[in-house]
Write a structure and sequence with these properties.
The chain is an alpha/beta fold and about 350 residues long. It has helices at about 55-75, 95-110, 120-125, 175-185, 195-200, 225-240, 245-275, 290-300, 320-330; strands spanning about 15-20, 25-30, 35-40, 85-90, 115-120, 145-150, 155-160, 165-170, 280, 305. The chain has two domains: about 15-130 and about 315-330, 2-Layer Sandwich (Nucleotidyltransferase, domain 5), CATH 3.30.420.40; about 140-310, 2-Layer Sandwich (Nucleotidyltransferase, domain 5). It is built from nine helices and ten strands. Strands 3-2-1-4-5 form a five-stranded mixed sheet, with helices on both faces. Strands 8-7-6-9-10 form a five-stranded mixed sheet, sandwiched between helices. Strand 2 (about 25-30) and strand 3 form a beta hairpin. Helix 4 (about 175-185) crosses helix 5. The longest helix has about 30 residues, at about 245-275. The two termini are about 20 Å apart.
């Protein structure tokens, strides 16, 4: 990536990024590849329902987007008139949530007379590794990306900023969903994935053994594992109603160990098949300590070059949208006002 790029008038490039794919309303400002503000408004209302309620999410986005964007601009110390372009999440995601961000971005772009840039949510997670941050090193091309989130699990070969090839993906549940549903089975509140990670730190990963699904190639499946955990706990709690409470750390550690093992088995196979030893992780589940440690171990034992993002760039955020938009801006890839949000958006489209 160029150390610094300017527009045709030799001015700095300011990109406003807007993210609204699920339940976080986020806005960030990027200057010449460096994030100068990054704000997120969370929606705690979903906790009482045990998952994201789409209608409530879209309503909250409508309430949050103006103050979040305003705060991002003020923290960056610029006016909206300084912006070079507006990048937004085109998809995939919840349609109602996406619609709020897309509509706002369109209106602001039209009012300011500046370019509009649609961004693929999962590509942005991967491209977050290119944010100019002294605490992160930039991966060289080509590299393998393990994208792991509540809605996605994929192994992607990344040849450049615009060339992404999916090598394998989940056939059913995403890994984040597997964590959250396992947590729900154990009676933990939403979102349960981080709680499993927390309790796993105090448990024995070999206390309980869960069979890993057999899936050919580089694809994943987690629905069978989730069912196996459910049946196991139903059987144990029938004999001992306090089984989960008495064994929560060991159960969490065993579940996490199994899920991480599934991910690492496929990732090792991808490295073997492609010969690419540069590996990055991206998406909300990349904050999980188990997968981070497994990758660090692989770096030491297998000679991989591993790239792990800062925690603030793992969950949904607008900084990743802004950096993806920046590369599109440099490449002259702009959208027109006919662009619409897409709940489903393959990685090779955006």
């Amino acid at each position: 990536m160029p150390e610094k790029a300017t527009d045709k008038n030799n001015k700095s490039i300011y990109i406003l990024g807007i993210e609204s794919s699920c339940d976080d309303t986020a806005a960030a400002v990027l200057k010449d590849g460096k994030i100068i503000s990054n704000k997120v408004a969370n929606q705690s209302i979903h906790e009482q329902y045990g998952g994201v309620v789409p209608e409530l999410a879209s309503r909250a986005h409508q309430q949050n987007i103006v103050p979040v964007v305003d705060t991002a601009l003020k923290e960056a110390g610029i006016s909206k008139n300084d912006l070079s372009a507006i990048a937004f999440t085109e998809g995939p995601g919840l349609l109602g949530s996406l619609l709020v961000g897309v509509s706002f971005a369109k209106s602001m772009s039209l009012a300011l007379g500046i370019p509009l840039i649609g961004v693929h949510h999962m590509k942005a997670h991967i491209l977050a590794h290119f944010i100019r941050d002294n605490e992160m090193k930039l991966p060289g091309f080509p590299f393998l990306a393990l994208t792991i989130s509540g809605g996605h699990t994929q192994i992607v070969q990344v040849n450049n900023h615009f060339d992404f090839k999916v090598l394998g993906e989940t056939l059913d549940d995403a890994v984040g969903e597997a964590f959250d549903k396992s947590a729900k089975i154990m009676g933990l509140p939403y979102p349960g994935g981080p709680l499993i990670d927390k309790y796993a730190a105090k448990g024995n990963p070999f206390a309980f053994k869960f069979t890993k699904p057999r899936v050919d190639g580089l694809n994943f499946s987690f629905s069978g594992l989730k069912t196996a955990i459910l049946y196991f706990l139903q059987k144990q709690t029938k004999d001992n109603p306090d089984f989960i409470k008495q064994n929560l750390p060991d159960l969490s550690a065993s579940i996490q160990y199994t899920i991480v093992s599934i991910l690492m088995d496929k990732l090792k196979l991808a490295v073997e098949q492609t010969g690419i030893k540069k590996v990055v992780i991206a998406g909300g589940v990349s904050a999980n300590s188990g997968i981070r440690k497994a990758l660090q171990d692989a770096q030491k034992q297998l000679g991989w070059e591993v790239f792990i993002p800062k925690f603030e760039y793992t969950t949904d955020n607008a900084a990743m949208i802004a950096i993806a938009g920046y590369f599109k801006y440099l490449n002259g890839e702009f959208a027109d006002l006919s662009i619409s949000p897409k709940a489903r958006l393959p990685l090779n489209q955006d």
